[in-house]
Structure formats: C-alpha cells, structure tokens
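User:
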Amino acid sequence: MEEFRPLLADRLALALVNRQQVKPGGFEVRDGGAVAMDEATRKAVVGAWQQRKREEVLHPYLGVKVPAGRLPFLQARVLARHLRGDLPSYVPCVPKNRPGSRPATVFDNPAGGGG
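Assistant: Predicted structure:
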C-alpha cells in the first residue's frame, strides 16, 4: 500500500488544501489530543476521494488504463504472481515524472517497460 500513498492519498490531500476545500477550521481537537473533521470537511474529503478513485490511470505492467481505485487490487495480483513464482521480481507502480505530464496518469516500470 505504501507505493500508492503519494499517488492516491498525499496528492489528494495537497490538492484539497491548495484549493482551500479543507481548511484548519474544519478540524476539532478533542480531549486526549484526537482530531476530528467537521461534517463539511468530511463530505469534501470523501467526495474528492470517490472522484479520484474513478480517474483512469495507465498501469505500467499491464499496459491498460484502469480506475485509480483498482490499483491496489491489481498490484496485489502482481504480488501474488511474484510470490507464486510466475514473475521473477515484484514490479511496483511508481509515478513517472515527465515534463508536462500528470504523474497520476503515467507510471514508470523500473524493470524497463511500460509508460
């Protein structure tokens, strides 16, 4: 799951803050130091997450466009193939940094293929 954090979670969180859809006032510090979102902030985050999961991305190993929300499932299958011995090594999904491209739609296969 860690390989998807920058692509799915970090990028979404930064976009919400930069667009001011999530603001400091949308959080409440509770007793014991816990932090909770208010209803409007929660709706903004969940709505943006649902939209993000529907965006299509190119999977480097499979070479097909898939909804971003399917990436963890597909990578679990790639990992299973490696563990069974069908693949010599695990091929992670790593965002490719190309000038003028969106890292969320183009991935690099460090083994030399894809993207």
